[in-house]
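Many introductory courses stop at the sequence. We go one step further.
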Amino acid sequence: MELLLNISLLALLLTTAVAIAWTRDLFAAAMLAGIYGLLSASFFMAMGAVDVAFTEAAVGAGIAPLLILLTLALCGRRQRSDKTRAVLALILVAAVGTLLLAATLDMPAFGAADAPAHGHVAPRYIGESMAEIGIPNIVTSVLASYRAFDTLGEVVVIFTAGLGVLALLLGGSDSRSAVPSPALQSGGQSRDLVLRVVAKILIAPIMLFALYVQFHGEYGPGGGFQAGVIFAVGFILYGLVFGLDAVQRVAGNGLVQLLAAVGVMIYGAVGLLGLATGKNFLDYSALAGDPVSGQHVGIIAIELGVGITVAAVMILIFYAFSAQLRRDGQPAMQVEETIDEMIERRVG
């Protein structure tokens, strides 16, 4: 039964990937990308990688399709036909795919007991992480303690990506010269009473669940990456239903930019505390009286920094796209006005 499930999920993944590459309707490709993320999360769940499945569901099937749709609102729905470029892309993909298949020939058999990961890596983490780190979730132990320096690099990459989006969308324009349309001056609030009521009901539980994921990552699936994305989804939903002006009154653009940097600074400051006490960088044992308690304090602190940066960067990207739509003379995106209608208006 498990083999049949895995084969079915892989077949659906392959079919979805081919459909994404085949279609020239970028709106359909964005929807298929969300489906691909959901299928990937299901496959990871079937493989027992719950934390990875959680991340894929939040990012791949959650916020990523929304950001793709915002991009389509700026660049249009239809892909231009360029056979030469398509052939070159096909050759490149085929070459990379061949190299990847060749590389798998040197890999150990799937699930082999004598694989290097099972013989050298897994025993250390599984057998000793509880005594050294003192938390049940081994994935969190690995990400936030054993390879905390690598995770710091990932957070910096996310922060840098946010800066890149801001530079691309906002760097070449002068927002002082933008004249908002009457629709923007009204705040862009949805006129649909049902959407407003449902949003008010859902936003608070979304935020509460984000906090649960943030501070429960030591004991179960979750952590700063997943919590940050979920928290950002709550703000983005608020902006979609009640308008960009309303959500920026809650968290202004300047505040969100500051928080994006503060999260990285919190992470780095934890490492500097270790150096200040004569320990190694990101050695949490200096944060409390005993090493295990120090691990708890350090992991909570750096996960908080991760969550703040991820949430702030996601919200910043949403603000940047919405601001770009405003400068183009389009109303802020609303739920009642579909992306399809926005794209058709822009292309027309």
